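hey m, so remember when u said the tokens were messed up on ur end? i reran from scratch. heres the input so u can diff it against urs
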Amino acid sequence: MNLSFFDQFSSPSLLGIPLVLLSLLFPALLFPSPGNRWVNNRLSTIQLWLLHLITKQLMIPLNKNGHKWALMLTSLMVMLLTINLLGLLPYTFTPTTQLSMNMALAFPLWLATLLTGLRNKPSASLAHLLPEGTPTPLIPALILIETTSLLIRPLALGVRLTANLTAGHLLIQLISTAAIALAPILPAVSILTVAILLLLTILEVAVAMIQAYVFVLLLSLYLQENI
């Protein structure tokens, strides 16, 4: 029973071939392809409006030099948002519950922001490791602490996204299992459990959207520090 709760987080495979790549590419098929017309249909209009809103929110903390990252950050936001929401459907696999995938997204992007700062403004980037006015005896300790906090950023990004989505999926499965088990014994309690499950599902939809936004927003803030 304990193992079955975590089976949903195992990578699906067909004939021994992992299907993670397919689960990553499939959400892109749900978006309509652009046409030659200014306005194709309502779905395309809503899609363009959402993309404009997401891009506007992500570019607020960035200056003009950071606007070159708009395409990559918006694409990452849309990908994470789509994968997180589709992962809440029954009998689906959520790739963002895998720490390896989240770290594969977080580490290269964090490293890119860091290298951008070291290339453009090396003095300002290194100055973040030592706050101004620090007493001389505390300089080695503060440099060590700031360096550790800088290096732990990609780990925090990946673990935050993985932990929040994994906890939500486990809660949904535990409560749904309890509702099914209580149905023949205590129907009234089972109905109450189903109501709690519906509320939890709404909460998890919000969590899926918020975590995708927080992941990309923190990357944009790291970028702002280095440009």
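this time it looks ok to me. The two ends are 51 Å apart (CA to CA). if urs says something different then somethings off w ur setup not the seq
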